[in-house]
Design brief:
The protein is built from 11 helices and 15 strands. The chain is of the alpha/beta class. It folds into 2 domains: 111 residues, no CATH class; 259 residues, NAD(P)-binding Rossmann-like Domain (Rossmann fold).
Length: 393
C-alpha cells in the first residue's frame, strides 16, 4: 500500500458531500442525521475512482469490499471548479443515483482525487451519534470534562491544544473511553494556517465537523497601573484573535457543509462581574463573549447556533489541573492567606448553593446546547452555583 496523498481539493469537497449524504429527520431542532465519512487517497483508491467500470471489479481498495450497492462515480470536479458549481454537480449526481437505486450511495468516487465512504454507525443510538466535535484548548480541567461528556454521548471528539507531550498524553487518556472516537489535533488558535490545517485533519478523519467548543484561553494577574502591554497583548492574541479565527474558519466550514452547526463558547463569570487585578483576562474574555453574540446574529440564517457557557473557577478535573488557576491561584492564595485546598473551599462557599464547580458541570452545560434541548442561540448559561453579581444582564 502506498503512502497516502491528501489533495486539498478532496478536503474542500468532503464537507459538501457529507452534508448531502446526511438524512433529513423532520425534527426542526435536529434537522439532519449526519454520517461519518472516511477518505481514501492511496494510489489504488485514486486509480479505482478514475472509471465507473471499476464498480464491477471484485478488487476494491482496502478496507472496502464490493457490496450490493455500487459506488457513485463523479468526474469533472477539477481544481478550478467553484464550491457552488461543485455542489450543483454533486447534488445532481446524488439525486440521479438515489432515484435509480432508491438509496444514497455509501461510496463516492471522485476522479483524480480518491474516494469517500460512509462508516457504519455505532450500534448504540446515543444523542450525539455520528456528530463530530472540535474542542480547543482541551488539555486542561474544563476541556477534560467537556471531552469526556461529549464522548459519553456518542460524539467523535477532536481534542486540540498546542503540540507537545501534554496534548499527546491527554489524547491517550481520552482513548481509554473510546479509542476510535478520539483524535488529538495540534492547533495554535492564534495561527490561521495552524487552525486551517487542524480543521483539514478532522475533515480527513471523519468528513466534517458539527460542534465546536471554543475553550482555548489564557489568564494573568496584574493591576492596570502595573500592567505590561506585551503581556496584555498575549492575552488579546489567544482570547480574542483565537476566538475570532476559530469562528471565522468554522463558519466557512458549516456553510459549506450546509447542515447547520453548534458553537459553544466557554466564557466566564468575569464578563458580567470582573475582578480587581484580573483586568486583562476579564476584558479579553468580554471581547471573546461579544464575538460569540455577534456570531449568533450573523450565522442564524445558516441554522448555526452560537451560545455561551460562563463558569466560575474550575480548579481540576481528575488529574488535570486548570491552566488558568495555575496562573491565578498563587496570587489568590497569597491575598487570602490560603493554601490550594482552602482556596477551593473559599470559592465553593461564595456561591449560593455552596457547591464546587467542576469540569463535569461545564460539560453538562455544553451538552445542553450540543444536544439542542431548547431552540436558542446567543444566550449565556452560568455555571457558578449562583453568583448574584455575575447574573447576565
Amino acid at each position: 500500500m502506498s503512502e497516502k496523498r491528501l489533495p486539498s481539493k478532496l478536503t474542500g469537497l468532503t464537507p459538501i458531500i457529507r452534508g448531502l449524504l446526511a438524512d433529513a429527520t423532520g425534527d426542526p431542532d435536529v434537522p439532519y442525521a449526519p454520517v461519518i465519512l472516511k477518505s481514501l487517497t492511496t494510489d489504488e483508491a485514486i486509480d479505482f475512482a478514475a472509471s465507473a467500470r471499476n464498480a464491477e471489479s471484485t478488487d476494491y481498495p482496502e478496507p472496502l469490499a464490493k457490496g450490493d450497492m455500487p459506488p457513485l462515480f463523479v468526474d469533472g470536479l477539477d481544481r478550478d471548479c467553484s464550491a457552488d458549481a461543485a455542489r450543483k454537480k454533486l447534488t445532481d449526481a446524488l439525486d440521479d443515483y438515489s432515484n435509480k437505486h432508491r438509496a444514497k450511495p455509501t461510496v463516492v468516487c471522485l476522479a483524480s482525487l480518491g474516494l469517500l465512504y460512509v462508516e457504519q454507525p455505532d450500534d448504540v443510538a446515543l444523542p450525539l451519534r455520528n456528530k463530530v466535535a472540535l474542542v480547543t484548548g482541551a488539555a486542561g480541567a474544563i476541556g477534560c470534562g467537556i471531552c469526556r461528556g461529549l464522548l459519553e454521548n456518542g460524539c467523535r471528539v477532536a481534542a486540540s491544544d498546542l503540540p507537545g507531550e501534554k496534548l499527546d498524553s491527554f489524547t491517550e487518556d481520552l482513548k481509554q473511553i473510546s479509542t476510535d472516537h478520539v483524535v488529538g489535533v495540534a492547533i495554535d488558535v492564534t495561527d490561521p494556517q495552524s487552525l486551517i490545517a487542524g480543521l483539514n485533519q478532522i475533515i480527513q478523519t471523519w468528513g466534517g465537523i458539527d460542534i465546536v467548543v471554543v475553550n482555548a484561553g489564557i489568564a494573568m494577574v496584574s493591576r492596570l497601573k502595573e500592567m505590561d502591554l506585551e503581556a496584555f497583548r498575549k492575552l488579546e492574541k489567544v482570547n480574542i484573535e483565537g476566538t475570532l479565527l476559530t469562528l471565522r474558519e468554522i463558519a466557512h466550514h458549516f456553510v459549506l457543509q450546509a447542515t447547520g452547526g453548534d458553537v459553544i463558547i466557554i466564557s466566564t463569570k468575569n464578563v458580567p462581574s470582573p475582578g480587581a487585578g484580573f483586568g486583562a483576562y476579564s476584558a479579553t474574555k468580554a471581547a471573546c463573549h461579544q464575538l460569540g453574540r455577534i456570531a449568533s446574529l450573523e450565522l442564524a440564517e445558516f441554522e448555526i447556533r452560537v451560545n455561551m457557557v460562563a463558569p466560575d473557577g474550575v480548579f481540576s478535573e481528575g488529574k488535570y489541573k486548570s491552566g488558568l488557576w495555575a496562573e491565578v491561584g498563587p496570587d489568590r492564595m497569597k491575598a487570602r492567606g490560603l493554601d490550594e485546598k482552602g482556596l477551593a473551599e473559599y470559592y465553593r462557599n461564595r456561591n449560593l448553593l455552596k457547591i464546587q464547580i467542576t469540569g463535569r458541570h461545564v460539560a453538562n452545560a455544553v451538552l445542553f446546547f450540543a444536544t439542542r434541548q431548547v431552540p436558542t442561540t446567543g444566550i449565556t448559561l452560568p455555571v457558578d452555583g449562583g453568583l448574584p453579581d455575575a447574573t447576565p444582564r
